[in-house]
Amino acid sequence: VSTGVFGEIDGGYSSSGSVEDNKVTINNATVESVYGGKSGSGSSVKNKVSISNSTVGTVYGGYSYRGSSEGNTVTIESGTYTDIRLYGGRTEGDYDEHGNANGNTVVITGTTKVLGRGGEFMSLIYGGYSDWGSANNNVITIEGGEVTGSIVGGYLRGSSRQSSTSEITATGNTINLLGGKIAAQVVGAQSVWDDS
Questions:
Q1: Which one of 26, 111, 153, 175 is most buried, counting C-beta atoms within 10 A?
Q2: Which residues of the chain have pLDDT under 50?
Q3: How many whole angstroms separate alpha carbon 112 and alpha carbon 98?
Q4: What is the DSSP code string of 94-131?
C-alpha cells in the first residue's frame, strides 16, 4: 500500500481458519490498524508487516482471538510514529479458549522514531502478547533510530482460575539493543495475574 488513508488493512483474514504467510507493505500511508494476519479462532502464523514513512495507530504481525499467533514479524524501517502500538504477535481469548504468542519478532531500524507524549500516551512495543496463553521466545531488535515508551519481549495476562496455569509461561524472550537512542522501559518478560 502506497499513499492514502485507510481504517484497517489485513494481509490475510479468516473467521475460523488459519492465516499464514501473508505480507503487508505500507509506505507513505495513514492507517488506523494493520494486521499481517488476522484470525478469529484459527492460528495466525508467519505473517509479515513492513512499514516506512507512514502514520499508523496499531500494528499486528499476527493476531488471533482464540487461536495462537506464532512466527510473525513486524519491521519499521523509517518514519516518525507517536503513541503507536506494535505487536509481533497478539492473542486474546478467555479462560477456556485461548492461544499462545510465541516466536514473534519486531524490528526497528534505520532512522525510525517511535515516540510517546508521556503518561498514558506512550508507544508500546511487544514481541508477543497473550491473554490467558503463553508468550515465549519472542524477539525485539532495535537497530537504530529513537525509541521511547515501553518495550516488552513477552507479555502474558492470566488467571489462577485457569486449569492449566502451570503450563502458561513467558520465557526465552530476547531484546536486542544494537543501536539508536533508547529512552524506554525495557522488560524481557512480564506476567500479570488477574484474580478478580
A1: 153
A2: none
A3: 34
A4: -SSS---EES-EEEE-TT-EEE--BTTB--EEEEEEEE
